[in-house]
Design brief:
With 82 residues, the protein is mainly α. The chain has 3 helices and no strands.
Length: 82
């Protein structure tokens, strides 16, 4: 008898990034949601005093940069460890 080899199973896809089909999809969707707040943040940073407290900066601009504010509070609220 001449046995044929079994067909290759399909390649596994990572479930973590399953919502993105290709790198082109990521490039088209990501900048539209983050570009405007990041540009606004960078503009504000260039106008700020170097001595200003970073928490005070975020409190002042919480309503303008809501998503970045929440991210900053998550990162800045992590206690320092030794």
């Amino acid at each position: 008898m001449n046995a044929e080899p079994a067909p290759e199973p399909p390649a596994k896809r990572s479930k973590l990034f399953a919502c993105y089909d290709t790198a082109a999809d990521i490039q088209q969707t990501a900048p539209t949601s983050a570009e405007a707040p990041m540009t606004m943040y960078l503009d504000l940073c260039s106008q700020q005093q170097a001595s200003e407290d970073c928490l005070e900066f975020w409190r002042k601009h919480e309503s303008d940069l809501n998503k970045l504010y929440r991210l900053a509070m998550t990162v800045l609220s992590v206690p320092a460890t030794t």
